[in-house]
Amino acid sequence: CHDLENHRITGVGKLFHLRYLGLRDTNITKLPRQLGNLHCLHTLDLSQTSITELPSSTVHLKQLVRLYIEDSVKLPKGIGKLNLLRELSSVGVSSSPNIVTELGNLTELRIIHITLDSGTGTWCKSYEKPLLDSMFKLQKIQKLHIRSFGVPTDFIADFGWFPQHLNDFLGSIPRLPCWMNSSLSKLHQINMSLNILRQEDLQNLGLIPFLYVLHLNIGKIESTEERLVIGTDSSQFQCLYHLSFDSLYAMGLMFVQGALPNLGSLNIMLRARETKDLYGDFNIGLENLCSVREVSVKIGCTGCRRCEVDSAEADIRRAI
C-alpha cells in the first residue's frame, strides 16, 4: 500500500510472531521503537521508503536474516549483533560509518550491497583499513556489490583476500582486483567499471573457470599491440555465455578464431569516430564468434560524418 502512513504501523510491535515485514515503496518515514519486540522477524524490507534512520531497538531483532534498506539510512550502533543476517542491501558508509567495523561481526552474510561515498564532505581514508578487515571476515559471502561515488577505490583493487564462495560481483574500481583470478571457482557473474583494461586482465578473467556473464565498462584500453586480443588461449572463457563491453573511447577488442566457444549473446558499444581514428577500421573479428546467437552493436555517432557511420554499420553487418 503506497499510501501507508506512520501512525498505521504503531501497533506492529505487538505482532510478536511476525516473520516478514514488508514496507517497500510506501510513505513510511519512521519506524516505532517497539520494532525491537519482533523477536521472530526474519525479513525487514524498507526499500524505496523515506525512512532515514532505524530505531536503536533494531539490534534486538536477533532472528533477522534479510534487511533491505536504502543506502541513505542510518544504522544504529550495535547492528553487528544481528549475527544471523545473511542479506544486507544496501548500506552506505557515509550514512552509517559504524558499519566499517561492525560488518566483520556479520559472518553469516551471503549478500551485501555497500555504497562508498563521501556524503557532504570528503572521503575519510581511515575507513579503509577497518572496512577491509571486516570484509576479510566475510568468508561466506556470495554476492558483493560495491558502488562508489567520488571515492578512490584502489584499496579494494589491492585487497589481499580470497572470497572462495563469491559468485556475483559488481563494482566500480580503477583496475582489475588482484584477487579476481582463476582461484574463484564459483564466480559466474561480473559487472565491473574499470578505469583501465590490459591484456593480462583479460587473461586473468578468461581463466575464471565458470564465468558465465561478463559486463565490462572501460575507461581506457592499455595495450602495446593494436587491440586487446581474445582467443589466443583456447582454455580461456570456456563457459562465458554473455559478454557486454563498452569503452568510453575506441573499441579496443579483437576476437580471433576460436574465441569464446560457448558465447551466445554479445552486446558492444562501438564509438565510430574514436575507433576509426585509432585503429583505422571497424574490424573486431565478429566473424570468429561461431556460437553466438544474438549480437547487439550500438554505434556512437558523435563527431562522425554520415558516410563514416554507414561504413561502420556495413562492416559490422558483413561480419555477422
UniProtKB/TrEMBL annotation:
- InterPro entries per record: LRR_dom_sf, LRR_R13L4/SHOC2-like
Q: Which residues form the Disease resistance R13L4/SHOC-2-like LRR domain?
A: 1-320
Q: Which UniProt keywords apply?
A: Repeat
- Where, by residue number, does the polypeptide cross the bilayer? none
* The protein's name: Putative NB-ARC domain-containing protein
